[in-house]
Each structure stands twice: as C-alpha cells, then as structure tokens.
Amino acid sequence: MSPLAKLRVSTLACALFFSVATAAQPAFAEVLISVNKSTQQMSVSSDGVPRYRFAVSTGRAGYGTPNGTYHPQRLAASWFSKLYYNSPMPHSIFFHGGYAIHGSYEINRLGGPASHGCIRLHPANAATLFALVKSEGTAATTIVVSGSNPVLASRHAPLPRRYRAWKRSSSGVRYRPDDRQRSGHYWRPESPSDYYWRPEPRAFPSFNQY
C-alpha cells in the first residue's frame, strides 16, 4: 500500500473514532426550575418543554426565601437540618448556602409560606425533581426564585387609649379622667367588663420545622 493510501486510511479511521465517541456522550437537557413565592407554585421544564407543576412552601414571615437565579451547589438524598431540631430534609437540592429545595412531611401546609427559608415540596415530588436534576446534571439546571415574601406584622402595637387612661382615686376606685364630676366624686366604670378589662397577652411565636 502506498504512503498516500495509508494516510487516507488513517484519516478515515480517526474520523470514525471521533464520530463514535461523540455519539456515545449523553446529551444533557437544560432544566429550568421556576419558583413563584406569590403563588406558592413551582414549574419545571426541560429544554423549554413543561414537565411538572408542584405546590410549594417557601419562607414564612421573618424567614423569607431569597430571590435570584441559582444553580444547584450540591445534592443530598438524605439530610437532616443542623439548625432546626434535626428536622428531615429528604432529597435536598442546595442552591444558596443553607437554602435548599427538599421534601417535607408537613404536606398540609404546602401551598402557603411555612418554612424557615427553604423551598418545601411533597416528598414524592421532591424525589421526582431530585432524580431529574441528578440525571441531567447540576450544570444544566437553573433555579429561578421570584415573587414577594410575607410581611411580618408589628409586635409593638400601641395599647388602647382606654387602658392607658385608667387612674386610681385616693379611695381605691379606678376611674378615667373623663368620668370626673364637678362635685369631686368619681364614677365607677359602667360595666364589670370595663372594670376588669386587660390587654390580651402576647403569645410568643411558635417555631415550625425547617
């Protein structure tokens, strides 16, 4: 065989090898996970084609989930919160420090903000999403969080004027300044409910699982 023929055979063999190697590499689909905090819904698409729509629970008042565009940082099929009472976080997809998308067994609270900042899913939906991200790869997955966080109500509301206006006479009878008569006597409150009225005690907020 002439040198020219050997060169042609070698070139053809290299081209065939690279075409086979390229065909053997898996084609990763672009996965987009969109979370809307205002509607408490998650939509998942693959290469622009809608795949799933899930109800979620994002951060409750005072523990808002941060908005932004992220990529998964790490995956954990089994995880327990080190910050909140060792709470289970199955099929966690961490996307921003300690914030993660994960399953939650408080399924009755899905559809409303209830977490300490993470994005909760039904355990079955979390497993489905985890499998999709793991198969397509974290580099091919984008997470977009948008919408508004719930507003934390003020804990320092002023006391009602009626309560602040009570005084006590020298004889021990409680009265309000506008109850004083010109004769110097004081009216007792008109009803027992007025006399014994007190502001409602402020209960400390209860902390839910992460």
Could you explain the architecture of this structure?
With 210 residues, this protein is an alpha+beta fold. The chain folds into 2 domains: 31-146, L,D-transpeptidase catalytic domain-like (Beta Barrel); 161-195, no CATH class. 21% of the residues lie in helices and 23% in strands. It is built from 4 helices and 11 strands. It has helices at residues 3-24, 123-136, 161-165, 192-195, and strands at residues 31-36, 41-46, 49-55, 68-70, 74-76, 92-96, 99-103, 119-121, 141-146, 167-168, 174-175. The protein has a 5-stranded mixed β-sheet, with helices on one face. The protein has a 4-stranded mixed β-sheet with strand order 5-6-7-8. It has a two-stranded antiparallel ribbon with strand order 10-11. A hairpin with a 5-residue loop joins strand 10 (167-168) and strand 11. It is elongated, with a radius of gyration of 32 Å.
Would you identify the regions where 5 or more consecutive residues have pLDDT less than 50?
A: 162-166, 178-210
Rg, alpha carbons: 32 Å
Strand-residue proportion: 15-25%
What would you call the structural class? alpha+beta
Taking all residues together, what is the mean pLDDT? 76
Q: Ends: how far apart?
A: 74 Å
The CATH superfamily of the largest domain bears the name L,D-transpeptidase catalytic domain-like
Shape by Cα distribution = elongated
Helices and strands, in N-to-C order? HEEEEEEEEHEHEEH
* Number of separate strands: 11
Strand order of the largest sheet: 3-2-1-9-4
* Named CATH architecture of the largest domain: Beta Barrel
Q: How many distinct helices?
A: 4
* Number of separate structural domains: 2
**Could you name the CATH topology of the largest domain?**
L,D-transpeptidase catalytic domain-like
CATH class of the largest domain: Mainly Beta
Q: Into which percent range does the helicity of residues fall? A: 10-25%
